[in-house]
Structure formats: C-alpha cells, structure tokens
Design goal:
The protein has 325 residues and is of the alpha+beta class. 43% of the residues lie in helices and 25% in strands. Strands 4, 5, 6, 7, 8 and 9 form a 6-stranded mixed β-sheet that branches. Strands 11-12-10-13 form a 4-stranded antiparallel β-sheet, covered by helices on one side. The chain has a 3-stranded antiparallel β-sheet with strand order 1-3-2.
C-alpha cells in the first residue's frame, strides 16, 4: 500500500477526471478499505478541495467545481517555505531572473488549495522584503498566523521571550497591533504598536510564541517615518552594528536595483553615488558590495570589514585561477 501522501495524490488525480466514482470502486483502485478512503477524502477537504459525496448503497464521490487545479498537495510548512524561498530569490535578483522568480511564485500560490493559498497570500502582503534574506528562523505556523493578523488588522496576543532588561529570558505576554513583517538578513521581525507600552516595538519572530487573534479590529496607525523596514533597521542599529561607506561608480538607480531598502543611497551625480551599509555581520556588508557589480572606493569601514573583503577577494581570485581553461 502506498504511503498516505502519495495515496492522497493518487486519489486527487482520480477525482480530477470529473467522473462520479462509486466508493467501492475508488477504494479498490487505491487498494484500501472504504474506511481509509473516507479518511483520505476528509484530508482532501481539509486542504480545500471540494469533494462531494452521496450516501447509501450506490454512494460515491465526485470533485466539485473549483477542484480542477493541478495536484499540488503540500502542508502548511511546505507552502510557507515555497513562498519565502521564491520571494527571497526575487528580492535578491534583478532583471529576468527576478521576474521569473515572481512569476513562479504567482503560479505556485495560484495552485495551492484555498486555505493554504490564503495563508501564502497573507504572508506576501504583510512582508516588507529586504535583500539577501534566507530561510526563516521561525515556525511556519507562527509566521502564517501573524501574517494573517497583519492582513486582517486584528490585534494579537502572544508570548515573547525578552533578551535583556530586568528579567532576560522571561516569557512575557504582549498585546499588539501588528502592522508589518520585515526581513533583515536571516531574521524576521514584527513591527507593531505595543498597546501595554503605548509605543512602537519590533519583535523578533523567533522569540515569539503562541500568537492568538483577539477578534478586535484596529485602525492602522501611521508608521514613524512611513517606512517599516527603515524603522526596524534603525532600531537594530542602536545595538552593536558595523558601518561601511563606499563610493560606487554607477548611477543611483543601478545600485538601488541591487541593494533596495537594505542600505542608504545618495546620488553624487549622474554616474556615481554614495552607499552606506549598516550590518551586524560583516559578511552581509561584503556580500552587498559584491552584488553591486560596479567599481567601488571604500570611504569608511571598520578593520574587520576590510579584513573580510581582503579574505573574500583572495578566495575568489584563487577559485578563478583554478578554473579549467
């Protein structure tokens, strides 16, 4: 007997012929009992597929309207992972590759079952992308629940593990109006208005636990400065960050397309600009310089950043020299 996932996929393929299947015949095709068939039918319904059934001796099953989508059977974690991976790829690239990633993302979301599609679309709408983000260091169920609250403008309660303060590591309950999800490097942050503290706060998603919607709808407040990503980055910069300032021999539009909102860009003239990168990890700053694909002059940088750039340069030169002619 096939495992549950492959059997469910086989069942969906049979139902998508748009014919009526007698229960006994369908169970026979799958080589399972009618009781197991009923459980598999319920699993498809939970995923959002409209499977109609008739009871009785001649009872059976038929896939209803709206069920003629490709058989993409994934769970919530897998759906969120696909959206994050394709969205991150699109934000980190430019030109045709970025467009292809966005196109693939749209197609993947379109063929997800209704329940998962709504969760994926909520995540896309709620997130302010920063370049170079990787797989999320946060549970997909938490990410999805918070994204839906952002989309629905619903107040949230959740547990949050404090890093510092009077009780570091303490799991506190927070009551928040969630406004935006922001990615910075490998981290995800929720920018929201803390109702207990009556002020804006950014919360690291990997420290957030058990988000619960309160069913209380709020009217969105104006984000300070109007830019969620900039507000979160500014808050992070109050900690231990490193600052790299370079002059790039390329137009501001060229640099902006490759760096996006992850850094500060000021045009010097039509052919050059000044770029300021703040990062907690020197590797992110070095990667940003490599992504520019333009001549760069370093105006200001801490010693560890210079050392990293020199080390990367040596490794890349060695790798290029070892390539076959």
């Amino acid at each position: 007997m096939a495992n549950t996932s492959s059997r469910t996929l086989r069942l969906l393929s049979l139902l998508q012929t748009h014919r009526f299947w007698a229960g006994t015949e369908l169970a026979g095709r799958l080589e399972v009992s009618e009781r197991t068939l009923r459980r598999d039918i319920e699993r498809l319904r939970d995923l959002g597929y409209p499977v109609h059934s008739n009871r009785g001796v001649e009872g059976g099953y038929q896939l209803g309207p709206g069920g003629s989508m490709p058989p993409l059977v994934v769970d919530e974690d897998e759906a969120i992972a696909m959206v994050v991976a394709l969205g991150g790829t699109a934000s980190g690239l430019s030109g045709s590759l970025s467009e292809a990633s966005l196109s693939a993302l749209a197609k993947v979301v379109q063929v997800l079952p209704t329940r998962l599609r709504r969760r994926a679309e909520a995540l896309r709408a709620a997130t302010v992308d920063s370049p170079f983000s990787q797989a999320p260091e946060v549970e997909a169920s938490v990410l999805s629940a918070v994204a839906q609250a952002v989309r629905d403008q619903e107040r949230l309660r959740f547990g949050y593990t404090a890093k510092g303060g009077s009780a570091p590591g303490e799991d506190l309950r927070r009551h928040v109006e969630p406004h935006r999800l922001v990615t910075v490097g490998r981290k995800w942050y929720l920018l929201g208005y803390d109702l207990d503290r009556q002020d804006w706060r950014s919360f690291r998603m990997d420290r957030l636990r058990d988000p619960e919607g309160t069913r209380a709808i709020f009217r969105p407040r104006d984000i300070p400065g109007g830019d969620a990503a900039a507000y979160v980055r500014k808050g992070l910069s109050r900690g231990e960050t490193l600052r790299l300032v370079v002059t790039v021999e390329a137009p501001e539009s060229h640099v902006s397309a490759r760096i996006g909102p992850w850094a500060t860009i000021v045009a010097s003239d039509e052919t050059s600009c000044r770029l300021e990168i703040e990062a907690n990890d020197v590797r992110w700053a070095a990667f940003g310089v490599v992504m520019l694909e333009a001549p760069v002059t370093i105006d200001s940088a801490p010693p560890e950043m210079i050392e990293t750039l020199i080390a990367w340069s040596a490794r890349l030169a060695s790798a290029a020299a070892s390539a076959p002619a």
